[in-house]
Structures are given as C-alpha cells and as structure tokens.
Amino acid sequence: MSKSRRPLLGHLAILAIGIAAPLVFPAWQSQMAELWLFIVFALTWDLVGGQMGYNSFGNVVFLGVGMYACVVTQVGLFYQVSAYNDARGGGATIFTFDPRQYFEGLAIGLPVGAVLAALTAAFLGSLVLGMRGHYFAICTLGLGVAAGELANGWEWIGAGSGMVPPNPPGAIGDLSRFYYYLAFALAIVTFLGLRWLYTTRFRFAINAIRDNEDKAEAMGLRTTQIKTTAWVIAAFFLGIAGGILGNLKRFIDPIDTAFAGATFGVWMVLMAVLGGKGTLWGPVIGAILFQVFKEASWTYLLGWQRVALGLLIVLIVVFFPQGIMGFLRERFPAWFGHRVEGVKDMDAVEETKAR
Amino acid sequence: MLDNIEILVQAPVITLDLVLNGLLLGAIFALAAYGMALVWGVMNIINIAQGEFVILGGYVAVVMAAYGIHPLIAVPVAALLLYAIGWALYRTVIFRIVDRDLFTSILATFGISIVLQQLMNTIFGGNVRIADAGLGTVFLMNGMVSLAQVKLLAFALAAVLGSTLVVFLKRSRLGQAIRATAQHPRAARVLGIDTDRVYAATYGLNAAICGACGALVAMAYTVHPYIGLPYTIRSFMIVVVAGLGNLAGVIAAGLGLGAAENVAGFVFGTQYQLAFVFLLLVVVLVWRNRRLARKRGYLK
Amino acid sequence: MNAMLEVERVSKSYGGVRANRSISLSVEEGRIVGLIGPNGSGKTTLFSSIVGTHPIDEGVIRFEGREISHLRAADVARLGLIRTFQQTRIYGRMTCVENMLISSSQRGSSLFDLFRARNPLREKRAEELLEFVGLHPKRHLQAGSLSFGQQKLLEFAMALMNEPKMLMLDEPTAGINPTLINGVIDRLKRANEEFGITLFVIEHNMRVIMNLAEYIYCLAHGELLAQGRPDEVRNDQRVVDAYLGSH
C-alpha cells in the first residue's frame, strides 16, 4: 500500500463506520448523533480558542441563535409563531405540517440559522474581540448567560416554557435516523472545511494572533478583521449544529438546550482541551472520549454525574492541560514535522551564523 | 417598560424605595468583590467559584436556621467553614495553577464551581431557601418606602466586616505579608515570606469573606444552588469598574450596581433582571475597552 | 536626497513622564541611520510613536511625504515601514518557515488573500531568507525553541520577508553572542545594499553603531541632544557627558 493512500483509506473507514453505526447499534443512535454534533462544537471552539488563542465561553450564543432561528423559520413559514408558541404543548397537535412543508421548513431553516449565527458573531466580534485574556473569556461568559436570560423572557419564542420544533408528519414516521445522518454529514463537512482552512495562510494568521498579537499587527496583519472572520466561520457551523440539535432533542429550553453555557458551553472547551488545543484531530478525539465518559457517568454515577464532570474539568485542566495531541507533540515532535534538517551537529548551526 | 419609567418619574418615592433597597444589597456585592480583588491582585487568579462560595455560606445559615440557631451566629460560622474549604481547595488544586496562564485558572475554578453547584444541588435540593432571622420591616415616608430590618442588619454587618478586613490587611503581620506578596512575589520570597502560605491564607480569606456574604444573603434574600454565577459576574464587574486595589471604588461600584439592578428589575420586569446584570457586564467591558482603544490599548 | 521619514516636534508623555520632548529628525532614503542614547532616553518610545503603537501628544510624522501620525500599527506596516522589538517578538509555537510565510508583505493585500492557495514564490523566498540569516537547518523547528540570538535573527528575517521600504531595528545586537555580532552587522549592511532597505537602528553597542551608521541622532532625557556623522557624534562633549555622567 502506498503511503499516500493510507489516510484516504482511514477516512473511508470513518465514513463507513459513521454510516453503519446506527444500523448496527440502533440503541445508541441518539448518543452517536449527539457525538457528531459535539465534534462540531469542539472543532469550531478550537478554531477560535485553540488556533487563535481566544478562549470563548460564549460560543453557545451561536448555537442558540441557530437553533431558535431554524425552528422559528420552520414554524413561521406556515403559521404565526406567537400563536404556535401560545398553544404550548398543544400546539403540535393543532399546527401540523405535511411532509413537503416539513422538509421545506428545515431546508430553509438550517441555512437561516447558520447565517443569523454568523451575523451575530460578526456583530459581537466587532464589540468584544478587541479585549484579550481574562476579559474576553469572562465577557463571552456573560454574553452566553445574557442570551439565555433574554430568550427566557421573550414570549414570542416561548420564553421560559421553551419551544417545540414542528412535529414530523405521521406519514414519514420517526426522523431520528434522518437527523443522525444530518449531524454526521455536518461533522464531516465541518471537519473537511476546517482541514482546508488550516492549509491556507489564514491558519498562520490566527496562529500568529495566538502567539503574539502585537507582533502580528506590527507586521501589517489586520487582526480585528481576521479575528472576527474566524469567529464568524465558527458561528456558521455552530448555527447549523443548533438547528439540528433543536430538532433532534424535540424540545428547546432556552437555558438548558439553546444557550446552555453550563453544559454545552463548558463541554466544548473541555473536549478541545482534552484532545489537544490547536490541532485538527484533537477536538475530534476529545469529543469522542468526552461523550463516552459522559454516557458512562450517566449510567454508573446516577445523581453524581455532573459532579463527576466538574471534577473531570479540574483534573484535565490541572494535570493534563496540553491534551492528548499536545502530549504527543511534546513526546514525538518529529511526527508533527518539527525537525532539524541537513545538519548533523547542532554546534555547526552556530558556526554558520558566526561565519 | 415605558409605563414603568413613567411611574418612576411620577412617583419618585418608589424610585427612592428601589434605590435604597438596592444600596443595601449592593453592600454585599461590594464585600464579595473585595474578596475577588484580593485573590486577583495577590495570586493573579480570577476565581470563578466566587459565587458558589457565597451560596455555600448561605446554606450554612440555612442549615443552622433549620436547627433553630439564629442566622446571625451563622455569619462567623460560615466564614470559618468557608475559610477551611478555601484553604483545602488551595492545598489540593489552586496551588498547582497559581503560576499557570489565566485560561487554566479560569477553567479550573470554573470546574470547581460546577462541582460545588452540583454538590449543593444534590445535598440541599433544588429549592429556593432562606434563613429566617425573624425581624420586621421599617417603614419610611408614610409607608411608601419599606426596608426590611434584616436587610439593614445585613448592610451594617457587611460594612463592619469590610472595615475589619481593611484594618486587618493594613495592620496585621499576615495582612502585610499578603500585600507584600501582591506587590512583588519574588521579592517577598527573598525577604523570607512563605508565599505559598500567604496564597493559602489569601484564598481561604476570600472564601471566608464569601461565606459571611452568603450567610447575609440567606438571611436577607434567598439562596439556590444555581445562582452562584451572577455573584461571580457582579464581583468581576465591580472590580473591573473600580480597578484593583481601589477600595472606595469597589464600595461605590458595589452600591451603584445594587441600586441599578433593583431599578432595572422594576423597569424591565424581574424576569430580565439577571439578563440586565450580564448585559451590563458586557456593556461595561466594551465601554472600558473602547476608552482604552483611544490610547491604542486594550483590556488584558 | 529626499527624506523618507520625517519626524517633526513629536512629544509623548506617559502619566506625567515626558518620554519624548519635541523631537525632530529625518531619515533619508537608502541610508543607514543610528539612534543612540542612554537608558531611558526615549528611543524605544520614539520608535513606537512612529509606527503607531501609541498615539503621540503633539507633532507630525511623515513617511514618504504622507502623514502617518494618526495611523494604527497595522496600517503603518502596510505602507512599508516595519519595526523589530528589543525583546524579540516571534510566533513561538509556529515553525520558523510558518513564521516567515505569514510575515510576507501585507501591502495592498486583503483578507481574501489569506485564503488563496500556497504561493511557491513566497515559499522559496522564505527559505532564501532563512538561509540568509543562517537558520535554514532549523526552519522546521518551533520558533520558541530557538535561542534568544537565533530568535533575533528570525525576527530580522521576518522583517525582510515583509519587503519593507524602511526597517526600524531596536537593538539588533543586544543579547547576541559577541562572536556573532560581526555577522549581524554584515547582514544589516547587505540588507541595505542588496535589498535597498533604508535602516533606522537603535543601538547601545557603540562599536556596532559607529561601524554601521552613516548618520547618528543622540537622545538624552527625551530630547534630541546631538546629531551628525559618527565621528562628529562620538567626539561631541555633550554625548560623552550624557553617557558617562548624569543619569
């Protein structure tokens, strides 16, 4: 087997596993669908937090905006959103959607969610990406909670009682497998999109901002523009993930599903850190391990699972901050292309400089 | 919303009532913020678990009240207990992150806050609790302005605690060691100060301050496992507005925040009161950053 | 000869300390000009003022006849005026080659250009310049793992990669092994002659600056003390006093 074809085969294997998994393990389908979305969470968080060094605790804003925008579009194309939400749980029986309406709503809703999330990122980015360090982290934390509280009070989208996405018409039956594949496809597209992005100089630009933003500016990079662009890209994918997640969960609570800073918001950071910040595969690996841990703790540590998750955060951050990929890079720098070429003896390098 | 503003304009006495009650609450915010500034200034750690320490202190008072002990006694007890918890947390976790980058300290204390939150939820349940102090209400202006005596008491106690703390930091050996470490840890070490012990004491002291705050909160207001984060955010906001090491600023910002929150809760409706707090944080930070940007600086 | 950089009566204070007081100087195109002065005389502040790191209080700065007093750092850099830092600034977790590739000139480029496919010419140029400063064998190492002196050379190469019209160097030989200093001087001169880059250099090492510069300005206590050819400045009694005496 030639060396260049090995990664291709690996990718095909992942594709095959992703397609076959819900058929082989139907009982785990919803957890696996969630996992694909978690991979999107971790990848997009890492674009800004890992590659660019802007540790955001507020990316849930884009998730929530995407979720509400998608579902509101799905409803709003055919009914009055306020009337639909006023009907609460009963709404789903009064307001029915035929298959064409249902898929049309979804097909328009998902992109609307993505675009609105991206616009939100462009607006918020211009406000808060000028701050650095502690201030950016806590400001985004504030943004996430504020968005949740606002949604919690906004009657039009159901306020604190939440919002129920349209019920799939009875004719097409259970759509959970459909949403599984949608989540899977989004994870693949996000991964490939970011993989391409990281081959361009845009990646060097955001890495430069992470390593020394003042220097990047002194070298002529328009850092504010670049930072906002990175956030917009992350928000775009998160917006789609939000739309899928809302329909997958079949119920949107403003604080526990949409703007869920205490769960998804922290988890996306944790997954990226666990796998290794600033790498392409790190967030993917981190998301898989995290989802396994989370499901296991839900099963075996009932009642204490959230405590266990908190402890996990502390343990990882304190004892394993470099993550799996970071650990590998420290141990095996050559795997990551960090090597000296053409010179056997280090001192010889000093000599060449002395001339 | 506009109607509510009209009410405030036409009946200034209602505004007075809101502002006075807000000021009473603001004293507690200022005290917790002072603790946060202490840890931030001395250890360069922003303690996201600040609010959970407050709530934990509140539960101490709630539990004691349930056993018929007056919540006033709970104030020192909560402070002592929280000092022990803070000290233990320093010895197990915090000492490992003192010299690390800020992201590590934020995320680690965030993790601690989640653990504490969930533990409280598991142990005390998810209901809103209070520690009844059994005091009445003071009426002013023909009953138009009502101030619960317990809030007045909490305000007075917060003031007493705050001044005790200031004197302690100025006069005592430990206080001087803390201030020396804050200014220059390496120089302090060279001069024979055990900075590790100073850090442990500082973190414990902050937890104790929060504990006392929490007991006051439980007495005069309410506690709930998940309302810690707003206290953290309030403390952070107050310190950002006042600046590190600016005591008068912390008091002013704390009282101002309390009043602003109360008025905003009336104007926008109480369901938006928390949204107001968090949005205010964003506004304050953006505003500060804009001002710095004029000098081509930034919040860092 | 026309002046490429003109500084006119520029003042800058920091919270009561007047770091620069009404400084006027000019740097002509194609020259190597030195800026000397005792510690704390305001040299680095002046550099930062010129490239727009902080706003100036008074005065005018012109680059190629265009006023740049109010431009921000990134926009000044895009005009072709690049500075290096006394405490070297490189991108520590990127490899040397990556450091070079992101340092290429941003003049006239837009955000969109960052998404373009890789440019072989740029990659070749990066390798050449790394060769020029003697870092070619280490080009795939993380820049942060280099020694201080090597980082300094990398920063110099990054500045060259930017194809500046004028390069402002803040103590290019500080912290470099004395045996390597001649190599640095040689490269600076070659950058000036071969690449046609105007150099404006802050330097503490008198031997270096006397060797390198064609014209020298001397600052003391935030004011311009003396100027002239190297031998004139070296023999100026005020300069000697400033260095030996009252600070």
**Shape summary of chain B:** globular
Class from secondary-structure proportions of chain A: mainly alpha
- The total count of strands of chain A amounts to 0
Structural class of the secondary structure composition of chain B? mainly alpha
**Percentage of helical residues of chain B?**
over 70%
What is the CATH topology assignment of chain A? Answer: ABC transporter involved in vitamin B12 uptake, BtuC
Distance between the termini of chain A: 46 Å
| Through-space gap between termini of chain B | 36 Å
Total strands of chain B: the figure is: 2
Mean pLDDT of chain B: 89
Strand line-up in the sheet with most strands of chain B: 1-2
Report the C-alpha radius of gyration of chain B, rounded: 19 Å
Measured by DSSP, the beta-strand proportion of chain A falls in under 5%
* Morphology of chain A: globular
Number of domains of chain A: 1
SS field, number of helical segments of chain B: 12
The most extensive contact between chains is: A-C, 41 and 55 residues
Structure, explained:
- The complex is a heterotrimer of chains A (355), B (300) and C (247).
- Chain A has 355 residues and is an all-alpha fold.
- Chain A has a single domain, classed as ABC transporter involved in vitamin B12 uptake, BtuC (Orthogonal Bundle).
- Chain A is built from 16 helices and no strands.
- In chain B, strands 1-2 form a two-stranded antiparallel sheet.
- The model of chain B has no long low-confidence stretch (mean pLDDT 89).
- Chain C is built from 9 helices and 10 strands.
- Chain C has helices spanning 43-50, 73-78, 96-101, 120-132, 148-161, 181-194, 206-212, 230-234, 237-244; strands spanning 3-14, 17-28, 32-36, 58-63, 66-67, 81-83, 166-170, 198-202, 215-220, 223-228.
- The termini of chain C are far apart.
- The chains are: A mainly alpha (355), B mainly alpha (300), C alpha/beta (247).
- The interface between A and C is large, with 41 and 55 residues.
